[in-house]
Specification:
- The complex is a heterodimer of chains A (about 350) and B (about 325).
- Chain A has 2 domains: about 180 residues, Rossmann fold (3-Layer(aba) Sandwich), CATH 3.40.50.2300; about 160 residues, 3-Layer(aba) Sandwich (Rossmann fold), CATH 3.40.50.2300.
- Chain A is about 40% helix and about 20% strand.
- Chain A is built from 13 helices and 15 strands.
- In chain A, helix 1 packs across helix 8, helix 3 crosses helix 12 and helix 9 packs across helix 10.
- Chain B is mostly helical and about 325 residues long.
- In chain B, about 75% of the residues lie in helices and about 5% in strands.
- Chain B contains 14 helices and 4 strands.
- In chain B, a hairpin with a 2-residue loop joins strand 2 and strand 3.
- The chains are: A alpha/beta (about 350), B mainly alpha (about 325).
- The interface between A and B is large, with 36 and 39 residues.
Chain lengths: ~350, ~325
């Protein structure tokens, strides 16, 4: 989750249309999104690339299960093309360290850099050396200020944020039979990713489900306060049919509040994979769905876009990987699709 | 006396650990990364450039620790100074912006010093509190936004520029180390700092105004952090509330490995420089060795642990 919050702090350039009809995630210059499944390096091209000795550096913003999955997707795709990874770093959300990491990696003269720029302003200078050296740059979810496509970078690859929020709304509506009252716990901060997902949920409920209404809205900035926020919401609205929680961390607090109230009827939907939340879901508890991004696919698409740029092919400027709705029925497939990993043992066989 | 202590005393390990460690690790990377550009001028220059802000923070911390105090707030001061400089620069000339950045660091340091020296509060607790306080201030200053600082004169002087072919950050480091070393070793103030940290009561009896020394060292630490914030801003051409956040442990480790005593009365500016470069060299070399991020963290932690353990081990016992 943390990687996503930083993006918002930078007043990300992407825009999102709010209408349910036209709603979609669009790029910084208004570019329409291209599905990641169309960004492909053919076997024939992969074979020809493998003899060219390309190298790549993975310069991440932090370490997490999500980053591991993105790295794995990129590493597998690079391996298919015989591309060696010469440096892997984590900036720990430190803009100065990200700059140092890029300088250190450039000593190895990589042909490709995959990275999540921590901030448009701080990363503009940081990536300048790599950009000027002709490195094929592919960015995850964020773009340095004033970088132009296709001269400065190959592509931006990101989640389909609107779809994540929309699928959360659809999953909750489905579990509630398309009617009832909803509590909306949104991220109370100027964070691009969470803001877009939260608003997409709200827009979908308001526009697509006339028999459902959001009767309680509460922002949250500290996940540790989720339980008390949920308790207050339930006191005011004891018949709440469902609650949307902005991400899985605070959803644990909301779940705790429902349990302590003996509430087994209010449904919860949240975003990102979490073992404790998923355990409640597979045990038939309050949680009805988790909406996740396809992190492995993000990494694969980043690697493919970088190679296509090196090979002089056209690369779409703005690529989105799909969201996946994970329910009790597809827990194993969902975990594999999102993180390319087996679901935790505690979730299996329930 | 066991065999480790005998070897340690023979090599005077405790005093020279940072230089020996630097030499050993440098040699190791030279051997392992000879073909990977480790010894290239560009890479060695990168290491010094990358460590310039933390070296300057370390200089301030040497003074504070030598006087028997500690400053945990310098990371937050870096962020406040950086943001102050960048925000002021949007409407005023560079000179005013840089002065404002430096003054913000000095003022927070002076606040720490006043609370410690005259309200008799422990510096650990005071600076722990102001660390949180000013981390919050940094976040509130621009509502989490980063502020660009792309004036070519500013970035030239404080970031990417060169003078006679020498990068400006190397010049800042050199000047800070030379001035810091002379003040620490050759001036009456430096002697009073060490005397205060060695035995405050004895220092007071001998006429040293120890409270004033405490105020000065914490103010100096704040000013050094302020300068570090300005250098970070010049280097990345923007200021952000996260700047300096990650430096606390690295700088403390660099200073301790460099031979400064945690309980006061002893320190070394040159040692702090070597400690800071050692940390930068570790970051650089482990990346070039293609270690995974987890491996880099483990190896770096182990090496720092060994170095700190040796430098803190009292062989006289």
């Amino acid at each position: 989750m943390k990687y996503k919050s930083l993006i918002g702090a930078t007043a990300m350039l992407f825009a999102l249309t709010a209408s349910s009809v036209l709603a979609e995630t669009v790029g910084p210059g208004g570019e329409s999104a291209t599905k990641s499944s169309t960004v492909i390096v053919s076997d024939e091209l992969a074979k020809s690339v493998s003899s060219k000795g390309y190298t790549a550096a993975l310069l991440w913003h932090d370490q997490s299960e999500f980053v591991n999955a993105v790295s794995l997707g990129a590493t597998d795709e690079f391996a298919r093309m015989g591309i060696k990874i010469v440096a892997t770093t984590s900036a720990g959300f430190d803009a100065a360290k990200q700059r140092s990491d890029i300088e250190n990696a450039m000593i190895k003269s990589p042909n490709i850099i995959l990275s999540l720029p921590l901030d448009p302003d701080t990363s503009a200078a940081a990536f300048a050396e790599a950009r000027d050296a002709g490195v094929s740059l592919v960015f995850l979810s964020n773009l340095p200020s004033n970088y132009k496509h296709p001269t400065d970078y190959a592509a931006i690859v990101t989640d389909d944020l609107f779809q994540m929020g929309k699928q959360a709304a659809d999953a909750l509506a489905n579990s509630m039979g398309g009617k009832g009252t909803v509590g909306w716990i949104f991220h109370d901060a100027s964070y691009y990713v969470t803001n877009q997902r939260d608003n997409a949920f709200k827009t979908t409920i308001e526009n697509d489900y006339p028999n459902m209404s959001i009767v309680a809205e509460q922002g949250i900035s500290d996940p540790a306060r989720a339980e008390e926020i949920a308790n207050a919401m339930l006191i005011k609205n004891p018949d709440l049919g469902g609650i949307y929680v902005t991400w899985a961390g605070p959803a644990e607090g909301v779940l705790a509040a429902l349990r302590s109230n003996g509430n087994k009827t209010t449904k919860i939907v949240t975003l990102d994979l979490s073992e404790p939340i998923a355990l409640d879901m597979v045990s038939g508890g309050n949680v009805v769905a988790l909406i996740a991004d396809e992190a492995y696919e993000l990494g694969r698409a980043m690697a493919a876009a970088a190679v296509l740029k090196l090979e002089g092919k056209d690369v779409p400027p703005f690529v989105v990987a799909p969201a996946v709705t994970v329910t009790a029925d597809n827990i194993s497939e969902g975990w594999m699709k999102s993180l390319h990993a087996e679901a935790p043992k505690s979730l299996m066989g329930k | 006396m066991n065999s480790f202590q005998k070897i340690s005393q023979a090599l005077n390990l405790k005093s020279n650990i940072v230089y020996l460690g630097f030499l050993v690790i440098f040699s190791f990377f030279v051997i392992m990364l000879y073909d990977d550009g480790f010894l290239s001028t560009r890479n060695l220059s990168n290491i010094i450039l990358q460590t310039a802000p933390s070296t300057i923070m370390a200089i301030g911390l040497v003074f504070a620790l030598s006087a028997g105090e500690i400053d945990l707030s310098f990371g937050s001061i870096v962020a406040v100074s950086a943001l102050t400089t960048a925000v002021v620069m949007q409407d005023y000339p560079i000179f005013i912006a840089v002065t404002a950045g430096m003054m913000s660091g000095l003022a927070i340091g002076a606040l720490n010093g006043t609370l410690v020296a005259y309200l008799k509060l422990p510096s650990f607790l005071v600076t722990l509190a102001t660390m949180g306080l000013f981390a919050g201030v940094a976040r509130a200053m621009t509502n989490l936004r980063s502020i660009p600082a792309i004036d070519p004169s500013f970035t030239g002087i404080f970031g990417s520029g060169k003078l006679f072919g020498v990068p400006s950050l190397i010049i800042w480091t050199f000047v800070a180390v030379v001035v810091g070393h002379i003040v620490y070793r050759e001036s009456k103030f430096g002697a009073h700092v060490i005397a205060t940290g060695d035995n405050a009561r004895a220092a007071q009896v001998s006429g040293i105004r120890v409270n004033r020394i405490r105020l000065y060292v914490l103010s100096l630490s704040g000013a050094c952090a302020g300068l570090a914030g300005i250098l970070y801003t010049g280097r990345i051409q923007a200021a952000k509330y996260t700047l300096g956040e990650a430096d606390l442990m690295t700088v403390i480790a660099a200073v301790i490995v460099g031979g400064t005593a945690l309980n006061g009365g002893k320190g070394s500016i040159i040692g702090a420089l070597a400690g800071s470069l050692l940390m930068g060299m570790l970051n650089n070399g482990l990346i070039l060795m293609q270690y995974s991020v987890s491996q880099q963290m483990m190896v770096r932690g182990l090496i720092i642990l060994i170095a700190v353990a040796i430098s803190l081990r009292d062989t006289s016992r």
